[in-house]
Amino acid sequence: MEEKNFFDKVYEIVCMIPQGKVATYGQIARMCFAPRSSRAVGYALHVNPMPGIIPCHRVVNREGRLAPAFAFGGPEIQADLLEKEGVPVFRKEDGMLYVDLDNCLWNPQ
């Protein structure tokens, strides 16, 4: 059987995140058995070969913050995609957009 590369593993896991939920970069890295590779997860999503199919908009940072440089249109586009799936997004005093991880974090068990 062919071994998957890291990016393929990232994309496979991100495709498992259900609508209405989000995951963190670190969570995806841990699920790829590479717990110190959060930045590599972010890069893999930045070069997502199938936007709209691989739901990279469902991945946020460990604080629930949306990507300030979301690769496919900026944080407002990411917020719009999440809100259409039922994930509430709010703006904090720092001006950045966030989701509430207590309510929206995916727990694959």
Question: Can you describe this structure?
Answer:
With 109 residues, the chain is of the alpha+beta class. It has five helices and four strands; from the N terminus they run αβααβαββα. The protein has helices at 6-14, 25-31, 38-46, 75-84, 101-104; strands at 23-24, 59-60, 89-91, 97-99. It is globular. The model has no long low-confidence stretch (mean pLDDT 92).
What's a concise summary of this model?
Residues 5-87 form the Methylated-DNA-[protein]-cysteine S-methyltransferase DNA binding domain. Pfam families: DNA_binding_1. It is built from 5 helices and 4 strands.
Question: Which tags fit this structure?
Answer:
109 residues; 4 strands; globular; 5 helices; alpha+beta; two-stranded antiparallel sheet; single chain; 36% helix; 9% strand
Tell me, rounded to a whole number, the average pLDDT: 92
Query: Radius of gyration in whole Å, from Cα?
Result: 13 Å
Residue runs with pLDDT of under 50 for 5 or more positions: none
Helix/strand structural class: alpha+beta
Head-to-tail CA distance between termini: 26 Å
Q: Roughly what fraction of the amino acids lie in strands?
A: 5-15%
Indicate the overall shape: globular
Order of helices and strands: HEHHEHEEH
Number of H- or I-type helical stretches: 5
Most strands sheet = 2 strands, parallel
The side-by-side strand order for the widest beta sheet comes to 1-2
Oligomerization status of the protein chains? single chain
Summarize the amount of helix as a percent range: 25-40%
Task: Please report the total strand number as a whole number.
Answer: 4
Pfam family, one: DNA_binding_1
Protein name: MGMT family protein
GO molecular function, one term: methylated-DNA-[protein]-cysteine S-methyltransferase activity
Catalytic activity: a 4-O-methyl-thymidine in DNA + L-cysteinyl-[protein] = a thymidine in DNA + S-methyl-L-cysteinyl-[protein]; a 6-O-methyl-2'-deoxyguanosine in DNA + L-cysteinyl-[protein] = S-methyl-L-cysteinyl-[protein] + a 2'-deoxyguanosine in DNA
